[in-house]
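Risk register update: the risk of archive-format incompatibility is retired. Evidence:
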Amino acid sequence: MFMIRLMFVLLVIAAMVLFGMYLLSSEKKYLHYFKQTLKYTLFFAVVVAVLFVLRRILYA
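Archived output:
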């Protein structure tokens, strides 16, 4: 559980840094990296949620 929280915190920090870099430099590559980070963070969250649901169903 700690590792999952740590991953989420690190992904949020990375996303905010990328978005800040985009705002400061106005280069589109940072916005693209920000969108990719956001997409993979949401994908990771869905996978973790599905695994938690499967765990509840299988071990209940």
